[in-house]
Amino acid sequence: MPPHKSHNKPVKQAVPHESASKHVTGEAVYVDDILVNRQLLVGRVVYSPHAHARIKSFDLSAARCVPGVHAVLSYKDIPGHNQMGPVVKDEVCLAENEVVCVGQAMFLIAAETEDQAREAERLIRIEYEHLPTILTIDEAIAQNSFLGPSRTMQRGNPDQELQKAQHRIKGELRTGAQEHWYLESQVCLCILGEGREMNVFSSTQHPSETQALIAEVLGIPKNEVVVEIRRMGGAFGGKETQANHTACWTALLCNATRRPVKIRLFRDDDMKMTGKRHRFLSRYEVGFDDEGNLLAATFELNSDGGCAADLSFAILERAMLHADNAYYIPNVSVLARVCKTNLPSNTAFRGFGGPQGMALIEHVIDRVARFLHQDPLEIRHKNFYGIDSRNVTHYGETVEHNRLHIIYEQLVASSEYDERRKAIAAFNNSSEFLKKGMALTPVKFGISFTTTFLNQAGALVNIYKDGTILVNHGGTEMGQGLHTKMQQVAAAEFGVNLDKVKVNATNTSKVPNTSATAASAGADLNGMAVKNAVDTLKSRIAESLAQYWSEQNPDTSTAQHSVHFENDSIVDIEHPARRISFADAMPLMNLRQVSLSATGFYKTPDIGWDKTKGWGKPFHYYAFGMACTEVLVDTLTGHHTILRTDILHDVGDSLNPQIDLGQVEGGYIQGNGWVTTEEIKWDDKGNLLTHSPDTYKIPSVQDIPKDFRVHLLQNVPNPDTIRRSKAVAEPPFMLALSTWLAIKDAVSAVANHAFEPSFSLPATNEVIVLATEDLKKRMRENPPGEAPTQ
Amino acid sequence: MRSSISFVLDGKVVTEDFSKPSVTPTTTVLNYLRSLPTHKGAKEGCAEGDCGACTVVLGELDAGNTIRYKAVDSCLVFLPMIHGKQLITVENLKTEAALHPVQQAMVDTGGSQCGYCTPGIVMSLFALYKNHDHPDRNVIDDALTGNLCRCTGYKPIVEAAARSCIHQGIDSSSNDEIRIAGLLQSIPRHSALIQTSNHTYFQPRTLLEALTLKHQHPKAIIIGGSTDVALRVTKNHEQLRQLLDVSLVDELHTIRNHSESLSIGSGVVLNEVWSAVEADFPALADMFAVFGSLQIRNLATLGGNIGSASPIGDTLSALIPYNARVVLERVSGRREVELDQFVTGYRKTVRKPDELIVEIILPKPKQRSVVKWYKVSKRKDLDISTVSAGFRIDINDTNQIQNAMLVYGGMAERVKRSSSAEAFLQGKPWTRETIEATMPLIDNDFNPISDARGSKEFRRIVARNLLLKFWDDTRKETNGAAA
User: Fold this and answer.
1) Which entry of A86, A713, B202, B401 is 20 to 30 Å from A348 by CA?
2) What's the CATH code of the domain at B415?
3) A570-585 pLDDT tens trace
4) Which tens digit of pLDDT belongs to each residue from A616-645?
5) In the annotation, is A730 catalytic?
6) CATH number of A280-450+611-781
7) Distance, in angstroms, between A29 CA and closest chain B CA?
8) Which candidate from B153, B378, B451 shows the least CB-CB separation from A765?
9) Tens of pLDDT along B148-160?
10) Class of domain A456-603
């Protein structure tokens, strides 16, 4: 095959994903593809079939006798701590005396074949005593079952201002859970080194935490554990903490059997055992004037954390910090709490609470507009954060470099919003069962971990004597193109061609103590760390070359600051004849005893956040975007079609427009799944009913907009980030709220927008059909003309 | 009698004799490939044919000894079923010099992000490349419906399809096709009996052999396309001890077009049935347009979908309004059963244990009949019906309903007609008033359940709404006779 196309300007170019040619040929190696010797054992996790029960007794003796079975482990066989909680230590690795959800791990089996492992599982005898369960947010609230204390944030005096407002409406909104449905289910392979060494290949977004938890469950120091991940087959937050579980279980079996062990969760088991996006029950009261200006709001957010804390508090916090979305509300209070239920612990998922907070305020705006018989877009525009005033959020951060207005102006024009709004009204007047709807919604998303210390990253950059460069950094590749961007950054900083730079598999022995690749901050943080390492190397090389050239030319010495890196060469710009190719310079550096390996580090400057006061600057900056979606809904069947979507999204100066557009498109479609067809259901015993793609429906190719126009906002460099770029990843997910509200707009047309439809998220065809029935009933009871909006 | 299987992989004939315990007759093609060090490209995403990450392409000789390429889900195919076929995997497409055009287009458009679904997508695109030139968006969408991608939002993948499938199917492998066809022809096609410690796998070549085996082994599980049976292995981990694979029986693969009817062999795969029925049975074509995915329709057979007698089997609710008949045969003779009478309960039929479904007969509809079929599912494509409905009305010149047939799937333990609504409609004018008076009657005939796909209430409302939708759709087609 020919080598990579030449890219002399490595950044801001739409270069393909660095693994693209491996992806398309099947050569890309995922954890399950790593070749292992014939000693490999299959690991299997035996999990609880009950949502809440006391384990009265268990007997593993028969299971241990199955031929080919090498280990059957219970919590009693854990050499270290029986604990996997990432933040709060409230999650056991294997159940002890009690199980608190269906899917909770109880025992581990290692066998030569999967059939043997399943046979052993069948022979395990367990006696349970059933305990009462809490399976819904409503039950949890009624029984005061919460994880941790509630949180509040407040600005102004919302209670008093609500009383004074011309109009007030209150209500509640339910948003559903969402399964990550990474194509590659949770997987880990452990191979023993010598002594206590444990080599771990884990599909994890957070290798350092995986390493730490394995060390803790095995009772060994962290320097005995190496975690490596080349790439994940998708993660979306689902492997931020919950990859640790599979990794710990695999390590326990590997340690016990002294043989390589792999656990790859079967799809249905993965769906039953792992956490999801938190479902929320949110309540609100909002005050506004005749013009639709928001004056005051009180929000109550109740999330379903499941049986343990996991990242629920940080997710709740981000929901609170995004309950304003793009809107200035002078008086706001947010009360929020995490419900404790007997379901698997819910976890990070793209947006991390942001979608739930934004869904609430977008729902509120939509209601206000219907109440005032105005186009929701008018109300949105009216309430956008201002440029110079009305620009401080309810937690005290000023919305700087506000792109809302410029995006709004461009998108309203390019989407032909006003003309299409008229056409839709005309269509709806002449069509009884098919209805069209449209919505244009904004996204303002804060970039940084709200747990401030996590905003740090490390890198290790090596140059070899042939002039090739190996970049190690703390971020992980899950498809988002992080390694491609890091390759581009390193190449651009060194002034070399992209094909000179390889990005290594993420490895805890190369870059230690890293944060998870999460919060959309992977490229921001690691990009700066890589640059920092490259700067160190360039400075060493420049110093040595300046000396070298000065020695060669005693009359006209070379100054270090004149040594530049460009076009695969290093040159003294004051004496351009002094030029050496990058590749030729490296053996010289080696001869001159220059270290060609350097670490880099970065921490985000100027952020600070007082969690207890709920005040400060949690975010380095905001990412902005808007989407306008038009749908056609069959109100008899509830089926919807997206006719057209226009998106304009802000990524600053894009490091790689192709990758960024892919993130925007993919995020929007994934969000569309959350707001339409992806419905999670449990039965009244806490069993997941939608535990396979047979019943859980993520978007297919036929569900994308028939006309899909996606653009990046141009000429908006972001100050103080790597090459003036912006994070992408999470923010576009929330563009999908436009789809949800477009569907609601179409349903609302059934009653000529005279009534507020009963709506929840996702808008499945069932929700659409039931809302339509309800509207028809209300129309019969209150004929048009007499009907109040509320 | 053959006791091994042979197929072409990596340009060579490979023979498996099932002597190793790791490969059994119910080993799926996916697991077989992944057990090889050189074929890790195909991925398991779901093991039930819903995600397509395991998509491979099978090359099969047609009557003229030309190779036909079909994308299939390798997680649903038992290894013996690829006997005599070419198994093409993602590793086989590129040459030393270049990526395959579909691969290069995927690289150029940014069609891969995490890359895990990509090998399957590339194989679907490869089959598309081989079978279509300049495919339109509908053809591209249909080719990709069986491949879920969670990262990209599909736009660049659709673009890659449009950009690359422009060379009349000609690629670097075209020069090797004659050699491969020769290899496939060299593989003996006679009957097989594969016996291992846990399995007996019959693979007869003639209908007489198949019927004789069914007579001798009435409990043997029949495999047509294996899309349903394979789930018992991949999802339920059952040990299927005795299997009767009828996929090589030529007599079951015939389609005969008579003046009054169409006869379709039970072993014809659904994608071919779709082409055969398009002209005379538009409601069936509508059904196939949202049936599973191309990978499924390339495997699943009409006999299999009818025989499994699922309450949500879409072919049943679409075929019954056309008065389809099922031909059952055993060694001692054959009989015809009205499809409407064929299913007796939840996955129960009138088929005797020693009988095989051999043919489905479709009488061509009369002029005054209007037949339509509807499906309500959470996702429009590649989903199982929450409710499906097949409707037929015969209207006379005075806009009176002479005959009505309302067949529902997903509303009962089997596909079932709404008899009270049908009786009420008899003789009534085909008007909205009639429909609105009929809608509540549908409730009398069904007591649906709530499950993962929808609530009881939703099913009831939708069942009524679909009748209204039928009226709305048909009033234009009945010459505006109705108000």
Assistant:
1) A713
2) 3.30.390.50
3) 999 999 999 999 999 9
4) 999 999 999 999 999 999 999 999 999 999
5) yes
6) 3.30.365.10
7) 8
8) B378
9) 999 999 999 999 9
10) alpha beta
